[in-house]
Amino acid sequence: MAPFLIDFINPFSTTNSIIDFVLAILLLGLIIFLSIKFKFNKFSIILLTSLSTALIITCLFQFTISSYFLFVLEVALVFVLSLTHTGAIRTFFSKIAQPKSVVKKTNPDKIIDHEALYNEIYETVAACSNQKIGALITFEKHDNLKNLTKNGTVINAPVTHELLMTIFYPGTRLHDGAVIIKDNMIYAASVYYTPTTKALSGKYGSRHRAAIGISEMSDAVTVVVSEETGRISISQRGDIEPVALDDFIRVLNEKMTEGE
Q1: 146: alpha, beta or left? (left if phi > 0; alpha if psi -120 to 50)
Q2: Helices and strands, number each (H, E), in the chain
Q3: How far are the Cα atoms of 17, 134, 141, 152, 169 from residue 175, in angstroms, in the given order?
Q4: Residue at 102 is within a domain
Q5: Are strands 135-139 and 178-182 parallel, antiparallel or unpaired?
Q6: pLDDT digit of tens for each residue in the chain (260 aa)?
Q7: The Cα angle at residue 156 between residues 239 and 215, in degrees rounded to 5
Q8: CA angle at residue 223 from 217 to 228, to 5 degrees?
Q9: Exposure of 246 by Cβ count < 10 A (0-12 exposed, 13-18 middle, 19+ buried)?
Q10: H-state helical runs in the chain
Q11: Does a structural domain hold residue 98?
Q12: Which residue, 70, 85, 100, sits at the end of a domain?
């Protein structure tokens, strides 16, 4: 009988042990690559690395898993855990599944006065924080958000502090939901996002969950002002972090230019 057939029939052969070890090393390398590229949270990194390390140790001691079914199950489990605990991976696959007409680049040749734009946003955020007015402002980057505006109201107006405050003022028709800013224009208001379903540590309201939700599905940057505390936060890539008012423009600029 041919040697490779013997190795296939006998799952405890040396050849299969070597194959398992090489596959386990490749799997660990893939996890490290994904961890860096998609910025896994700490829980995911520990969980996935431990799982892959256990596989390598199993191969080293030749308690081989060359029944292949177990190995495929191991790989499937790694990716299930990735999808469960990492919003960035969900974003990656959702982009692949979306039609090309939905995900497209914004016009790179359009000249935008970012300093003036950020100053208008800063004034709005400072006023909302001081008066404890809830606000949700999303900046479109490369991923087109036009399909999300179907449940909102198209504005197509220049970004000004006065207009934003009018939109977010409690009691007005558009104050609930998010404002989407495309380039230097308020593209739409009163837009609603699907909130994140992942567990969050700390107290977060519906606006914060909505901000994380849109950041899991696109590369957009979203600013949140809490209606209860006046706290300012910025969400991107499935994460959200509080931002001091003094650092707001600097952090916003970093988020907007990241990856460019």
Answers
A1: alpha
A2: 9, 7
A3: 62, 8, 23, 11, 6
A4: no
A5: parallel
A6: 434 333 433 444 455 566 666 666 676 676 666 666 555 555 556 666 666 666 666 655 554 544 444 555 556 666 655 555 455 555 555 555 444 433 344 444 456 788 999 999 999 999 999 999 999 999 999 999 988 888 899 999 999 999 999 999 998 889 889 999 998 899 999 999 999 988 887 778 899 999 999 999 999 999 999 999 999 999 999 999 999 999 999 999 999 988 66
A7: 10
A8: 115
A9: exposed
A10: 3-9, 14-38, 42-60, 69-85, 87-97, 114-131, 161-168, 206-217, 248-257
A11: no
A12: 85
In a domain, 163, yes or no: yes
Q: What's the rounded Cα separation, in Å, for the pair 105 and 98?
A: 14
Q: What is the CATH number of the domain that holds 209?
A: 3.40.1700.10
Tell me the C-alpha distance between 61 and 58, whole Å: 5
Instruction: Check if the beta carbon of residue 187 is closer than 8 Å to that of residue 194.
Output: no
Structure tokens at 3: 């040697």
- Domain identity same for 50 and 176: no
Total tally of structural domains belonging to the chain:
2
Note whether 173 and 244 are same-domain residues.
yes
- The first and second tokens of residue 48, run together, are 């996935």
The answer to whether residue 57 sits within a structural domain is: yes
